[in-house]
Structures are given as structure tokens and as C-alpha cells.
Specification:
The protein is mostly helical. It is 76% helix and 0% strand. This is DUF1878 domain-containing protein.
Length: 111
């Protein structure tokens, strides 16, 4: 079983060299941080939930989405860094409105 896992890892490493991984920063991050399929699925479920909350809150006229960012930060897997994950998600086109809101909050905090 160990040889099979090592072979798969080697093949993925070779594939990552021939693909333009810079065009897929979120996928690259998932691979580099050794996120498992279960951890990935949990992250996508979290993002789906937060995106639905964001849409609902937007429809209600709310303008401050800090609570969603805090929720995301608190639930994000420890293998992933918050800012890097948000930037990678945005760059790859995942949850664009939500990621734009998160980035706006982050930029506002910096100022």
C-alpha cells in the first residue's frame, strides 16, 4: 500500500510540473498543503454555507460581512493560511462575490 501511495504522489508531482499550476492557485494550495479529500469537501461545504449566508445577508441589505469572515477564519483547516486561501480562491474564480467581500474587509483592516 505504501508503494502505491508513493507512486501516486510521484505521478502527481510529475503532472504538476507539466501543468501551469500558477493558473490554478487554489488547486495548487490544496496540493501543497496536503489537504485530504475529506478536508477539501469540508472546506467546500463551509464555503457553500458562507456563500448562501452572504447572499441572504446581501438581500437583507446588510453591508458588514465581518462575521462571515470571522466564521471562515475560525473554521478554516489549520493547514491553510487565511489570506493565502482567500487570494487563491478569488484568483481561481471560486465564490467571487464572497471573496471580494472578504478582501474588502481585509483591505479595510490594513488601512
Amino acid at each position: 500500500m505504501k508503494n502505491e501511495a508513493e507512486t501516486t504522489a510521484f505521478h502527481l508531482h510529475l503532472l504538476s510540473k507539466i501543468m501551469n499550476m500558477e493558473a490554478y492557485p487554489f488547486t495548487k494550495l490544496i496540493i501543497e498543503c496536503d489537504i485530504t479529500e475529506q478536508e477539501y469537501n469540508e472546506l467546500i461545504r463551509l464555503l457553500d454555507y458562507l456563500d448562501e449566508q452572504f447572499k441572504r445577508q446581501t438581500e437583507e441589505g446588510l453591508l458588514d460581512f465581518s462575521s462571515l469572515l470571522i466564521h471562515f477564519a475560525g473554521m478554516l483547516h489549520e493547514k491553510l493560511e487565511l489570506h493565502q486561501t482567500i487570494f487563491a480562491l478569488k484568483e481561481e474564480g471560486y465564490y467571487p462575490s464572497l471573496m471580494n467581500a472578504f478582501l474588502a474587509i481585509i483591505e479595510h483592516i490594513k488601512d
